[in-house]
Write a structure and sequence with these properties.
alpha+beta, 8% strand, 6-stranded antiparallel barrel, 53% helix, Lysozyme, 3 domains, endopeptidase fold (from Nostoc punctiforme)
């Protein structure tokens, strides 16, 4: 603290004898704020004696005056400098404030403009959204109206269709038209079968099968088919058994030598195999019984040739038809020709291929070959044997009358029926002509059972030739072939129903709860056989007129009645 300020304070204290008042100004006056140390110093001085104070003051007065002057000078300079600095700072501050104000104003102007633009964009967007929503509402309403109109039109069309359909169904003319169409379809189906060779079907009434190859196959395929036929066709003189593999191959060695590779078109001396084209049955018959004009796979000559051609005429075929020739061969083997072979050892089980080849040549063909010629036959047979592995699918397997168990009615019916009705459907039937109806799709056991039934029936053969797609014929065949009732009517179902109801014929009515396999089920217009459990379900075997041959289907009880093939039926059992 300056001396001058100390002196002023001391003077005031001495004049007033009171504690000095402190100046609280912030530098506007010449005196500065007194801090606590200075106050303590003043207090200490006050405690001293007045004389000492005065002396000290007098001694220091001159020095303080000098210091005070210098200090005042310095203070003024400082104050002047400070004032100058303060003015500069204030001016700079004012400039900065003006710049800031200018920038703030510009920013405010830009914000205002931006706000105006944003507001304008919002208004445009709001207007667009409003228009879009209105458009969507209008579109939705239009679509809903369209769907409604379509639904109404659809319901109206459906209603009109139903009304029209009902009118058509209740109109008798409709059913007349349907009947006419069905008749046309049946006639068309019959027309498609005209000209069909009956001998290309399965086993016929005589138990003879067929080869299933065309005329354009190669020699080996045709030869394999013939061997397959020989090993699957029963011959009466052979004990109603087919040939063994060795026997059939021995025969084939002879046919290859005889007819240029077992060719049914062969005429003796015609190596080009073309003469048959201009020589039919009548042409061959014109030759009479002259020799040296052998024909067919066996090269039948002289009187045997005439017999063979007459057989073809009876069958309605030409002499060069392969299946016709095989049927005629069976006819010979079932008679004296076959017996002659048997008597000369053809059936000896120890025969080799060479043995059977030689026996067939000498006792059936009766050729003019010497030993060398006979050896060629053996060579052909053994060469064929090396290549032949079986003719499966090339010929039908006819089991004749010996291959099925006719003593069991139920088993016979199951073997004679297809597993499903769909498999049993036929397309070769006509209501106007039932001959051969269903024959093409009858199972082999059914075909053979019918042969046996017609032989055994006390009523004689059926008056409708080979009718298979018929419920009455199916049941009659099973009942007669199994010898359950040899006097059972062939049909129709009305006659069969009257026969079953008459106790004198040995049949009695039975309930479904008392059913047994072998029971006959009858209702007006339909007849069936109950065959017990087949593939896990109670089953019947039945056929249907012009629709299908025998087939297996399910049956169940409805009280005492049997529910089978879509309706109720009464059960009957043979008791004596």
């Amino acid at each position: 603290m300056s001396k001058k300020r100390k002196i002023i304070i001391e003077e005031k204290s001495s004049m007033t004898d009171e504690p000095p008042e402190l100046d609280n100004h912030d530098g506007e006056s010449e005196t500065e704020e007194i801090d606590e140390e200075e106050i303590d110093e003043i207090d200490d001085k006050d405690d001293k004696e007045p004389d000492e104070v005065d002396l000290e003051e007098n001694d220091e007065e001159s020095d303080d005056d000098l210091d005070t002057e210098e200090s005042d000078k310095d203070d003024k300079e400082d104050e002047s400098d400070e004032e100058s600095d303060d003015d500069l700072e204030a001016e700079e501050k004012n400039d900065r404030n003006r710049d800031l104000h200018s920038r703030n104003k510009e920013n405010n102007d830009e914000d205002s403009e931006s706000e105006e633009v944003n507001e304008e964009g919002k208004d445009n967007l709001r207007e667009q959204l409003t228009q879009k929503v209105a458009s969507m509402k209008e579109t939705s309403v239009d679509k809903a109206r369209q769907y409604k109109d379509k639904a109404i039109k659809g319901m109206q069309a459906l209603g009109n269709f139903i009304i029209a359909l009902v009118k058509i169904l209740i109109n008798p003319i409709t059913w007349i038209i349907v009947a006419v169409v069905l008749i046309i379809m049946v006639i068309s189906g019959l027309t498609l079968t005209l000209g069909k060779n009956d001998f290309n079907e399965l086993c016929g009434i005589d138990g003879v099968g067929s080869v299933l190859v065309g005329d354009d196959v190669d020699d080996f395929t045709r030869q394999s088919a013939i061997v397959s036929w020989l090993t699957s066709t029963p011959f009466e003189q052979f004990g109603n058994k087919p040939m063994t593999r060795e026997q059939a191959i021995g025969v084939m060695g002879n046919l290859i030598r005889e007819s240029y590779g077992a060719n049914p078109y062969a005429i003796q001396g015609d190596h080009s195999i073309t003469s048959w084209q201009t020589c039919d049955n009548n042409c061959v018959l014109d030759w009479g019984t002259a020799g040296g004009k052998a024909i067919g796979i066996i090269q039948w000559d002289s009187g045997r040739r005439v017999s063979m051609v007459n057989f073809a005429i009876e069958q309605g075929t030409q002499w060069y038809d392969l299946n016709t020739q095989l049927r005629f061969l069976k006819k010979e083997l079932d008679s004296g020709e076959g017996r002659y072979l048997v008597n000369n050892g053809f059936l000896n089980p120890f025969n080799s291929i060479a043995d059977t080849t030689t026996i067939w040549n000498r006792f059936f063909e009766r050729s003019a070959d010497d030993e060398a010629g006979n050896q060629k036959r053996i060579d052909y047979a053994e060469s064929f044997a090396q290549k032949y592995v079986g003719g499966g699918g090339l010929a039908t397997h006819c089991i004749g009358g010996m291959g099925i168990d006719t003593t069991n009615l139920v088993q016979l019916a199951i073997e004679s029926a297809w597993p499903t009705k769909k498999q049993a459907l036929v397309s070769d039937c006509s209501i106007s002509n039932l001959t051969n109806c269903g024959k093409s799709n009858a199972r082999p056991a059914y075909l053979q059972a019918r042969i046996i039934a017609e032989q055994n029936s006390l009523r004689g053969p059926d008056n409708i030739r080979e009718l298979y797609a018929s419920c009455d014929r199916f049941v009659a065949t099973m009942v007669i072939a199994s010898e359950t009732d040899l006097n059972f009517p062939w049909g129709a179902t009305t006659e069969q129903g009257e026969y079953l109801k008459n106790p004198e014929n040995g049949w009695k009515e039975v309930s479904c709860q008392d059913r047994q396999p072998g029971d006959v089920l009858w209702r007006d217009g339909h007849i069936m056989l109950y065959v017990g459990i087949v593939n896990g379900q109670d089953s019947i075997a039945s056929a249907s007129a012009t629709e299908r041959t025998g087939a297996i289907s399910k049956v169940y009880c409805s009280g005492r009645m049997f529910h089978a093939d879509g309706s109720l039926a009464t059960g009957y059992r043979k008791v004596n």
